[in-house]
Amino acid sequence: MNVQTEALNLFHKQQEKNRVSHAYLIVGKSDAFSFAEYMAQSLMCMQQEIGACGTCSVCLRIKERIHGDYSVLSSKDESIKKQEIVTLKEQFVQTNMEANSRKVYIIEDVENASIAAMNSILKFLEEPDSDVTAILTTSQPNRVLETIKSRCLLIQLKDNDQKLLYEAGIEEGLDEQDAYLLSRVENTVEEMLTVSQSDGYQATVDLALEFLGMLNDMRIHEGVVLMQHRGIKQKVLDKTTIDLFLDVLLVSLDFETFPKFNQYVDKMNDNTKLGYKKRVLMIKDRIRPGVNTNLLIDQLAYEIVNQHKTFTL
After folding, report:
1. Domain identity same for 181 and 74
2. 42: which strand partners?
3. Both 119 and 213 in a single domain?
4. pLDDT tens across 281-294, in order?
5. How many domains does the chain have?
6. Structure confidence by residue, pLDDT tens digits, 67-97
7. Closest by alpha carbon to 109, among 83, 78, 151?
8. Do 193 and 172 contact (CB within 8 A), yes or no?
9. Where are the alpha helices (DSSP H) in the chain?
10. Band of the pLDDT at 2, cuts 50, 70, 90?
């Protein structure tokens, strides 16, 4: 976990004043779960009142997720279902399983919960027990119900400095284009290197830039066909690469972008870039665990064609 001084100070002051909230929403790109886990350790640590020692049996069991009064729900592979929330609630209304312990649960990436699950989470938060603390994490707070956000204390984590990430990426051997791109979409050098070495990375970046180049030359139909053919039929785009594909488009469409990206959008004016960017963001917001990638590609093709029509009217 990166040092999050302001967030840590806020939480530690709450502990000092014995004013710990019954629910938190941690907002951050990649450190959110690590911070939430630290909070759980801090609330349950038997060795110190403020913060977590990280070495006692309680802290270690939380790290290993084997503490009886601690639970984690995650949605990395598929959306969180209502029944999972119901089961969690049933578990946490029971008597504490361990002596002198409070109860803490973490719901990771809460934005990926189904609507029914979100409503169950809301009901859970509306009926707080004094010895239970809920910690929700998200990287996309706009996709979390406002009623859930209003019942949580929001802790915003800071992203890493993009310039420092770029320089660190160069030092680790990334070329300038990859270092620039990945410093804009990832939050640690380790994540940048992992993505750059992943299967499909280069093919995805190449497809995104070729697609943009065709839009730049007003070859809209050709670009859409290329994206659908290579993305769907040749399987360049799938659930592991679609997010990266959209990120390359967004980084390239920034008003001030890296020169090697700018050559693919240099014929577009600011209004054109903004229009395309809004459509791409719309599709990116639809990404969920288990989403049909081919459908997203078709939807993007439809949005791009419609956006182009607005330019020519």
Report:
1. no
2. none
3. no
4. 999 988 888 889 99
5. 3
6. 989 999 987 767 899 999 999 998 887 767 7
7. 78
8. yes
9. 5-16, 32-44, 57-63, 82-92, 115-126, 146-149, 162-171, 176-185, 189-196, 201-216, 220-228, 242-253, 259-262, 270-284, 293-312
10. low
Is there a single domain that holds both residue 296 and residue 216?
A: yes
Supply angle C-alpha 103, 54, 18, rounded to 5.
Answer: 50
Angle at which helix 220-228 crosses helix 293-312, to 10 degrees, equals 180
Tens digits of residue pLDDT in 52-72: 999 999 999 999 999 989 999
Cα–Cα distance measured from residue 43 to residue 45, given in angstroms and rounded to the nearest whole number: 6
180 and 254 fall within a common domain: no
C-alpha–C-alpha distance, residues 75 and 71, integer Å: 14
| Same-domain check for residues 136 and 19 | yes
Radius of gyration of the chain (CA): 22
User: Is 155 in contact with 11 (CB distance < 8 Å)?
Assistant: yes
Residue 2 parent element (H or E):
none
**Are 47 and 78 part of one and the same domain?**
yes
Distance CA 107, CA 38 (A): 14
Same domain, 228 and 103: no
Domain containing 191 equals 161-196
> If we measure between CA atoms, which residue out of 242, 253, 183 comes closest to residue 212?
253
Instruction: Tell me: do 307 and 172 sit in the same domain.
Output: no
